[in-house]
Specification:
By secondary structure, this protein is α/β, with parallel strands linked by helices. The protein is built from eight helices and eleven strands. The chain has a seven-stranded mixed beta sheet with strand order 1-7-8-9-4-10-11, sandwiched between helices. A four-stranded antiparallel beta sheet has the order 3-2-5-6, covered by helices on one side.
């Protein structure tokens, strides 16, 4: 994945009424590795509905990052249809924020400077950009850290800054590629809870790639399990937990949580072999 991916692509044309933010139909993708064709996405279909958090789990190397890159137009699919808000588009969709595992913060900019970057590029007046960025940093618990440079922040704080940089553009849809994978357990639970709270209160839709089954079950409304390469959808779970879905500890303590985790674990075990 290239490091030149813009933090977010914002804005957006009017959507046909009622169309889900994302519909993926029979997408396939192969790479040409020195003349050898490597099929990565076999035949993959999925939907993302408004206000929904969907987690995607799958064996390492099955094509999860390839899928996200294809969905947001960074690479083209070989076959199938990708409709954003009911429309097939060429290039990058509007209103979509993409966040990677690696924070890719610019070391010479402060936390605030990093968050403001996308707004500045879009020509938002500096004072507005600054104000909006402060609001999002505050919501993510970074009040008082706006003037800190990335090297002086912990890994969790840097990921929060990266999340703020994605959210400040107010994307309708967030594509998150293992954003919390490198964090320690406690930091991860806190940032997962904050992410769930922020996206659920604003009814944004999220497609979250993760290799952490517990993370998937605790945060998502639906978990999609992918097979090994060439990948396809192997199983889909609607997650019905009675707990507050912005509290990752409460979700883990809910009746039914462990059962989902076991079933997905079993699917992945088979998918690996
Ligand atoms: N640009 C590329 N050219 C050739 N092969 C690639 C390229 N990018 C990824 N791959 C291969 O495609 C497969 C899927 O990669 P990726 O989508 O990164 O998997 P995941 O995110 O599920 O771990 C891997 O076998 C990887 O080596
Ligand atoms: Mg990946």
């Amino acid at each position: 994945m290239s490091a030149v991916v813009p933090p977010t692509v914002a804005g957006g044309a009017a959507a046909p009424a009622g169309a889900p933010p994302l519909i993926v139909e029979h997408v396939a993708k192969s790479y040409d590795a020195d003349g050898r064709i490597v099929p990565v996405i076999g035949d993959l279909s999925l939907n993302l509905n408004e206000g929904e958090i969907v987690a995607i789990v799958g064996p390492s190397g099955c094509g999860k990052t390839t899928l996200l890159n294809t969905l947001c137009g960074l690479i083209s699919a070989d076959a199938g249809r990708i409709c954003w808000h009911g429309r097939e588009i060429s290039g990058q969709p509007a209103g979509v924020g993409y966040m990677l595992q690696k924070d890719l913060l610019l070391p010479w900019r402060t936390a605030l400077g990093n968050v403001m970057l996308g707004l500045e590029i879009r020509g938002v007046p500096l004072s507005d950009a600054e104000e909006r960025s402060h609001v999002v940093l505050d919501k993510l618990g970074l009040h008082g850290f706006a003037e800190h440079y990335p090297t002086t922040l912990s890994g969790g704080m840097r990921q929060r800054v990266a999340l703020a940089r994605t959210l400040v553009n107010e994307p309708d849809v967030l594509l998150l590629d293992e954003p919390f994978a490198a964090l320690d357990f406690q930091t991860k639970l806190l940032i997962e809870s904050d992410t769930a709270r922020l996206v659920r209160e604003s009814r944004r839709s999220v497609l979250l790639i993760t290799h952490d089954i517990e993370e998937a079950v605790s945060i998502a409304d639906r978990v999609i399990v992918l097979s090994k390469r060439p990948t396809r959808v192997k199983a889909v779970y609607d997650i019905a937990l009675a707990s507050d879905r912005t509290d990752m500890i409460a979700a883990r303590e809910s009746p039914g949580f462990v059962d989902y985790v076991r079933r997905i674990w079993a699917d992945l075990d088979v998918a690996r072999n």
